[in-house]
Predict the 3D structure of the following.
Amino acid sequence: MEVRFADWLQDLKRYRVIGVVRAGEPQLAYQLGAVLAQAGIRLIEITWDCPEADQVIPRLQVAYPDCRVGTGTILTQADLRAALAVGVDFVFTPHTERELIATSTSAGVPLVPGAFTPTEIVQAYRWGAPAVKVFPIGSLGGASYLRQLRAPLGHIPLIPTGGVTRANAGEMLVAGAIAVGLSRDLFPEPWCSQGNWAGLREELAVWLKSLGLTGVATAGSP
């Protein structure tokens, strides 16, 4: 798995932040994804429960070819096959299901399953997941829990989500996360309610720089 998805793991190590977009309407989902890309976040997840996610994802891939755009909240084989048909760059699930990992791996697309305990994390990795989502990290003790996991499971790339914020993301990375996933905390008020996308983009770019992460995506076609 490490060889097959070496490029994915390299991207995780390089970019470190996965921006998760969950929106109630397609244009907003696209706009939030575009803001993330313009701020320098290269790994963007559009959750599959976003309306018209199957259209938003390829649109972002064309507009921002320097980014990897994938999906998450995949729960069934039907949803996974539909997402793979769209051409997603990666898949996240909130749970671990062997058949989902096998299907995505066979298609050459990395799937990162969610796991809660050491037993679940090890099982997911043995079933072929190139990395494992530790979810929800906020209910498990945050960076402290991650550090404890890393002691015996340091060989498994871990991505904490569910409780990661801009305030604690750096601590998660120091604790050993290969990358972190953030959602709601990336889109604070009043930027979104006012549609101040330039202000939000600048704020996120400053935050990335504080983590030692820079690099604005190159826009392609709109």
Observations:
- Residues 216-222 have pLDDT under 50 and may be disordered.
